[in-house]
Amino acid sequence: MKQQRGGTLLGLIIGVVVGLAVALLVALYVTKTPVPFLNKGQNRTPEQDAAEEKRNKDWDPNAPLYNKNKPPAPATATPKPAAKPAPAPAPAVKQAPAKPASADPLGDLARAKAATAEPFVYFIQVGAFGKAEDAETQRAKLSLTGVEAKVTEKEQSGRQVYRVRVGPYDRKDEAEKIKGQIESAGYETALVRAQR
Question: Which CATH architecture is the domain 120-195 placed in?
Fold first, then answer.
C-alpha cells in the first residue's frame, strides 16, 4: 500500500480556502455586484456632463414639498407682452377689526389648553416592586405585548419602591380603555390619578 502524504491540518486549511472562495463567488452572483478590479469605472463624456449640468441648473431641492401652487420661477430674459389697462379698483369692503397680536402666543395656547383640560393625568400601574430587576422584568413582559411602560422610583414608608406604569393619559376614558386591554392580556392593573 502507498502511504498518503499531508495531514489533517493541511486538509483543513485547503477546505477553508475552497469554502471561502465558493462563498465569495455565490455572494457576488447573488448581489450581482461587479467583480473588483475587472469592471473599471464608467467614463463619462463631456457631452454627458454638460447635459447633466444643464438639467441641474435650475433644480429646486424643495420642489416635492410644494403643493400645486408652486412659487414663481426665477425671472428670465424673455420679452414681456404688452401691458393691459388696469381694471377699476373694487369698492372697499369694511372688515371686522382684527384682534391685537398677543405678546405671548405660546402662553395663550397653554392657558387655552389648561382651561379645557382636566386637572389630572392618569397612569396605569402594572406593579410595584422592591427590586429594580423585578420591575424591569415586568416592563419587558409588557413590551412583548406591545405596551410601552416606564419604571419609576419612589420612596414609600422608608423603603424604595419601583413602580411599573403606562401613561400618562390626559383623559380618564382613554386610560380605562388601555387598562382593559392590559388586563385582557392577563395583568393586574390599577388606575392612578395624579395632579398635573
Answer: 2-Layer Sandwich (3.30)
What is the average pLDDT across 112-133? 78
H/E run at residue 162: strand 159-169
Q: Are strands 190-195 and 159-169 parallel, antiparallel or unpaired?
A: unpaired
Query: 105 is written with which cell numbers?
Result: 402666543
Q: Give the residues across from 128 on adjacent strands.
A: 163
How many angstroms from the chain centroid is the CA of residue 134?
30
Distances (CA, A) of 145 to 61, 64, 118, 163, 173: 42, 38, 29, 18, 21
Query: Could you give the dihedral angle defined by the CA atoms of residues 22, 25, 26 and 27, in that order, rounded to the nearest 10 degrees?
Result: 120
Rounded mean pLDDT of 159-174?
Answer: 86
DSSP string, 26-73: HHHHHHTPPPTTTSPPPP--HHHHHHHHHHHTT--TTGGG--SSPPPP
pLDDT digits (tens, 9 = 90+) for 80-114: 555 555 555 555 555 555 555 566 777 777 777 66
Contact 129, 92 (CB under 8 A): no
156 forms beta bridges with 159
Place of cell 369698492: 91
- The residues spanned by each domain of the chain are 120-195
Cell numbers for 187:
395583568
pLDDT tens, position by position, 176-193: 888 888 888 888 888 888
